[in-house]
Amino acid sequence: MLARLVEQAQRGDALAMDELLGILAPYVGRICGPVALQDGADAAQEALIAVFRNLRQLKTPAALLGWVRQIAVREAVRFAKQRRQGSTVPVEWEDKPITEDLHLASDIADAMERLAPEHRVVLTLRHVEGLSEQEVAGLLAVPVGTVRSRLFRARRSFRDAWD
Length: 163
Description:
- It is built from 8 helices and no strands.
- With 163 residues, the protein is mainly alpha-helical.
């Protein structure tokens, strides 16, 4: 079904594009939010713009989610690094996680915010998206050993921030 939607959107079908946007927006938001933090919504928007601008170049419609994930990670890391370097204006994150335990969500967000962008991205891809270490390495274009060391440091930093 998703591949069919992609093919229709690639041919310029506005309804298919709209439906595809409805599917991809939450997915991209789940990736960008934890990595780019306050800039998560902006990173997600930029990622979606890039996806739809380049959708016709996607040769294998069945590979859509992996391709979108790669774009979302790139944008989220770019925004996180800009924030870290102080080149963006602080913005409140309007779409905070909705959960039954808002205190827990706040604690998790606080701990994630204290991590470096490269640590947030590996934690998000590994533990939120459920990718293997090899898949994370391929997506970030780094060796598997680098992913493992970043995960180790990220988990340790998360625990330290949690305490």
